[in-house]
Amino acid sequence: MKTVTIIGAGVMGSAMALPFSDRGYDVRLVGTHLDSEIIASIKTKHFHPKLNVTLPANVQAYAHGELVAALGSDTDLILLGVSSAGISWALDQLSQFMQQPIPILMITKGMHAEINSLVTLPDVVSNSLTEKFGSSVKIAAIAGPCIAGELAVRRQTGTIIVSHDQGFARQLCQDLETDYYHPRPSIDMIGVETCAAFKNFFAIAVGWANGYLEQIPTAENKAKNNNAAAIIFDQAVHELISLTKALGGQIENVWGMAGVGDLYVTCQAGRNSKLGTNLGRGLTYSQVREGPMKGDTIEGADLGRAAAHAIKAMIADGTLTKRSIPLTLSLLSALSTETSLDMPWKDFHQTN
Amino acid sequence: MKTVTIIGAGVMGSAMALPFSDRGYDVRLVGTHLDSEIIASIKTKHFHPKLNVTLPANVQAYAHGELVAALGSDTDLILLGVSSAGISWALDQLSQFMQQPIPILMITKGMHAEINSLVTLPDVVSNSLTEKFGSSVKIAAIAGPCIAGELAVRRQTGTIIVSHDQGFARQLCQDLETDYYHPRPSIDMIGVETCAAFKNFFAIAVGWANGYLEQIPTAENKAKNNNAAAIIFDQAVHELISLTKALGGQIENVWGMAGVGDLYVTCQAGRNSKLGTNLGRGLTYSQVREGPMKGDTIEGADLGRAAAHAIKAMIADGTLTKRSIPLTLSLLSALSTETSLDMPWKDFHQTN
For residue A220, what is the nearest residue in chain B, using CA coordinates? Predict the structure, then answer.
């Protein structure tokens, strides 16, 4: 019997308990300091109040202070289930309490922006553990279209598991494949994580089409704005290709589950597209942040604002051309100034 | 002043009157024998009863028998606006009444299935005019995400104009670009038309996810089926790449407007996804054809049934592998047998 310890009892970390449990793992689910109510509910009635599901019997809940007990000496795999905002806390905990180099699978995904460059989050985690463990901690990360509430009730779901260690990625895919969960291995860390990060950013732009429709006069035939959404979606795919190439990833991942697949599902709902809808209504980014989305975490906007400098540095050094990313540049401008999002239609689909 | 004669007054042909009119063309809109009511309405009150819009003043309507008058001696461009079912009729009319080699822009798009091969419709049209005109008739075709009712009220729309004659495609794009209509040129006839045809076919599969959701028990947390739709969508993109490669097209068009862009908009609504929804509910194809969609034209299904033999021939001669198109094969099976659509989840995203 293998044991997985999931750190972070939010919806995505907790939903991953399902395939692990169904493949015979003992699952230990450890809350952060934000998860106290969730952990109390699971401890008393096995019900996850944010997923709104009863978890399988072999999922044991542990409170914030019980990480050491949860890890024990027999944890075979750590699932890092915190949000990107929680990653520093989690790394601090692991540095303190992880006694041997336990392999880590991350659901936290995306890119960490440094001044002139973007680093994948799995590489950030890997680097932070080097001091204590050298390079002996295997790291992998999950990307792809996965709404947690659907996975939690065993809806069909496909993902990518990416690692620099091909054997580790393959092993995890074999260990997690079920009738409803279909992970596929990749070693293209940069390509997968670039898509995982920027699909949130581009979902903002696709969401614009709905909001714009709301604030223009109703047409004689009540036409919607699906043509516009489609060309923005497609331009987003083109720009994901440009960004992935510039960062050194494989463009095959752009039309894989981390790219087109996840962009598709991210455009159906969620906070990124909701921000886009508000921008389409003519609000500026700061008006949205002070009004309808005050206090919300909007991953695509946070990424865009953090990555803007690195993107401009890539343009300055010739790694990326302005002509290949007009949508990115318009969106970055809307996220950093007091102007509404201006779609550069005539620049779309001109080149790669 | 240039003149365009549009043959076929259905929604898409008629919607194209907008960018032509706005770019200063005189537009002559000729109905087929199916369009009598539409033409009568436009003649009396300039209102198109299927688009539900008032057409611009410089659009003149012509009835079924008035093609010769519409063509006159001054038509600069013919827009072939009939459906694929009407193409034989239109070719017959052109062979009879076209006196000189007038350039043709087609909105009819896709592939014509011969026993062991698939031929693009523009090439079918081109071949049929060779006897009378040699190769002197320039042919181009439009593809990409375009809902006619949106174009008809000047919603933002992007398309591809494809022709073996690069200069002709470029000229048409220049002549048609407006503030809301953004055509882009391509010379990859096979790539564009493969995408244009098969996106309808794959939209059936994406539609499956909604119907399947309806017929399974409601989950504890009322989860939907978006993860499934996303991996089917992404698998469809992979299989469009495999089919495009096998037929000799450029895979860049798969992530262009004719591919991913049009697949995106086709999955939002329409008869192809409605067929998929019915298959997801557990009906067989013939049950759908005898029941909820009796008499409907379903382009993706018609293409699949017509192309099945050619696809099998490509597998037999090694041009295409079964492993690269599991979704295509499952869908072809569902369209040709009395079994419901069986999604081959474990075969998805295994290879290209």
Answer: B53
Q: What's the half-sphere exposure (Cβ side, CA atoms, 13 Å) at A316?
A: 8
Q: Which residues contact A100 (CB under 8 A, 6 or more apart)?
A: none
Q: What span, in angstroms and rounded, lies between the C-alpha atoms of A178 and A196?
A: 23
As given in the structure block, the two tokens for residue B170 are: 């470029």
B343 touches chain A (CB under 8 A): yes
A174 touches chain B (CB under 8 A): no
Supply the pTM of this predicted model. 0.96
Distance CA(B11)–CA(B243), nearest Å, equals 29
Which domains, ranges and CATH numbers included, belong to chain B? 3-187 (3.40.50.720), 191-347 (1.10.1040.10)
What 3-state class would DSSP assign to B4? strand
DSSP string, A21-48: HHTT-EEEEE--TT-HHHHHHHHHHSEE
Nearest CA in chain B to A150: B223
Nearest-Cα distance to chain B for A159, in Å, is 9
B312: left (phi over 0), alpha (psi -120 to 50) or beta: alpha
> Collapsing DSSP states into helix, strand and coil, what is residue A161?
strand
Whether B183 and B316 have beta carbons less than 8 Å apart is answered as no
Residues of A in contact with B226 (CB under 8 A): 145, 147, 150, 265, 268-269
Q: Do B241 and A255 touch (CB under 8 A)?
A: yes
Residue A185 confidence (pLDDT) above 50: yes
Cα B130 to its chain centre, rounded Å, is 24
Tell me whether residue B309 is exposed, middle or buried, using C-beta atoms within 10 angstroms of its C-beta: 0 to 12, 13 to 18, 19 or more: middle
Q: Which residues of chain B have pLDDT under 70?
A: 351-352
State the Cα torsion B20-B22-B27-B31 to the nearest 10°.
Answer: 70
A-chain CB neighbours of B151 within 8 Å are 227
Q: How many helices and strands (H and E) does chain A possess?
A: 15, 12
CB A240 within 8 A of CB A198: yes
Give the model confidence (pLDDT) of A22-45 as tens digits. 999 999 999 999 999 999 999 999
Considering only the beta carbons, identify the residue of A151, A233, A252 that sits closest to B227: A151
Supply angle C-alpha B310, B312, B314, rounded to 5: 70
Residues 6+ apart with CB under 8 A from B158: A227, A230, A231, A234, A345, A348, A349, B144, B145, B182, B183, B184, B257, B261
CA distances to A205, B32, B50 from B83, rounded to whole Å, are 33, 11, 15
